[in-house]
UniProtKB/TrEMBL annotation:
Its main location: cytoplasm. Residues 106-155 form the LysM domain. Keywords: Cytoplasm. This is Potassium binding protein Kbp. It is found in: Cytoplasm. PANTHER family: POTASSIUM BINDING PROTEIN KBP. One of its GO terms (cellular component) is cytoplasm. It comes from the Bacteria.
Length: 157
């Protein structure tokens, strides 16, 4: 549990369907409730397993709060990254509980010119271990080239 920082405005545009219809907002700025609903829909669309999931969003501080229960530390981290790597979110308040706690992964912010092989070389001393990072970030990544500067990735032990 804790507060995680992300870079606002560089994440993927969240186009997942909202869980519930919220009151209409101006086309340029969605309401906090619309963003929270889209974040909730985004997590569900990724198929990340979580019970009692709720997401709230504070537009004044660009803070998304995530609550629920997950089975593994990996699921917890993927949910945090799924929410934080969206363009409106600058911080994620993690209030998820883990049934089977384990060691936390490191988080890495992608820089311009990075690829998974380069990141793998930095963390594991072997560029060929890039698939370990790719698998640790599925379903958030669809392929190994699907990373962008400012994105935060899980780096497993």
């Amino acid at each position: 549990m804790g507060l995680f920082d992300f870079v606002k405005g560089i994440g993927k545009k969240n186009t997942a369907p909202a869980e519930q219809q919220a009151a209409p907002a101006t086309p340029s700025e969605p309401s906090a409730q619309e963003i929270a609903n889209k974040l909730l829909g985004h997590i569900k669309a990724l198929g990340l397993p979580v019970a009692g999931l709720s997401v709230s969003y504070n537009g004044d501080s660009d803070l998304a709060t995530v609550k629920g229960q997950v089975q593994t530390q990996a699921d917890r981290e993927k949910i945090i990254l799924a929410v934080g790597n969206v363009d409106h979110v600058a911080k994620v308040d993690d209030q998820l509980t883990v049934a089977t706690p384990s060691a936390e992964s490191k988080f890495y912010t992608v820089k311009s010119g990075d690829n998974l092989s380069k990141i793998s070389k930095e963390f594991y001393g072997d560029a060929n271990q890039y698939n370990k990072i790719f698998e640790a970030n599925r379903p958030l990544l669809k392929n190994a080239d699907d990373i962008f500067p400012g994105q935060v990735l899980r780096i497993p032990q």
